[in-house]
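We store chain and fold; example below:
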Amino acid sequence: MVPVGILVLIILAAIAVDSAVTFLGQRQLENTATSAATDAAGALSYSGFYRQGHVALDPMTARRVALASVAAQSLGGLALSGPVQVEVVGRQVCVSLDARVHRIFGQSVPGISDTTTVRARASATAAGDIGTVVPHRSAC
C-alpha cells in the first residue's frame, strides 16, 4: 500500500511541476507582449503630431519597435511558435505572441506531448490630445 501511495505522490508532483512551468511560461510571454506593446505605443507619427497637432501612431515604426522589443527580451525556456503579430488601430497597438513551453516530466509519459502552446495578447494606447478620452476597451 505504501509503494502505491508514494507512486501516486510522485505522479501528482510531476503534474504540479509541469503545470507550474506552463503557468510561468504564460506569465513570461504576457510580460513580453505587454513590454512590446508599451514600447510600440511610443512610436508617434511625428509628421501628424508636428504639422497638425494630433497624436497618431506610425504603424511601420510601431511594428519595428515591437519586434525589436520582443527580440531584446529573454524568453528563457520559451520558443516562439509563430510570427509576432502587431496591429495598430488609431492610437492603440496590440501585440500577440504564441510560444511553446517544454514540459519537464511530460516527456517521460507516453502519449503526452513534451510541449504545450501558450498565447499572450497585450495592448497599449498612446496618450491623446488635451481633452480627449483614452478608451479602456481594446480596439484591436
